[in-house]
Amino acid sequence: MKKILALDLGMDTGFAVTESHGMNSGTARFKMKPHCEGGSYRNFESWIAGIMQYCRPDEIAYEEAEGRWVNVFAQTYYYSFRAIMLKAAFDFKCEVFGYNQSFLKRVILKSGKADKIDAMMSMRKRYPNVKIESDDQADALMVLECHIGVRKGVILPPVKKKKKKTRKKK
Fold first, then answer.
1. CA-based torsion, 39, 27, 104, 23: positive or negative
2. Quick one: pLDDT at residue 142?
3. What's the domain count of the chain?
4. Sheet order of strands, 95-100 included
5. How far is CA 34 from the centre of its chain?
């Protein structure tokens, strides 16, 4: 079986990784004080390099952002961390797969409108032996479960819908 690293990118990054004896998951925090310019990026870069070195994943699956941001800083951190993750994937020759949030919720939680609490409760029921401490960790577990399902052919991957062209009324 391929080793998979699943990520929910953000200032609190949820992760789940398949290992030979099962799975490991948790949350890594990258919040820095305002005077530590660039510290969060350096910390994330160091963390992702360390986890890649230690786990040696064959594939990385991550939750793609859909554009609803708490603030501009959250958006900036997400896209910066995504770029750092993609560089690490390239350096370690990993395939990368992104899954949007509504697809994950529809497939795993059976509702595209489920909230963070629903995700945590569902993942706690599915993984009773895993201590799930944050919604980010729960999201990473959803990404991992979804990705494994897609790779096994049990879950169909998301299909991008073509936008219909509409004519303007005169």
1. positive
2. 92
3. 1
4. 22-29, 12-19, 4-8, 59-64, 95-100
5. 26
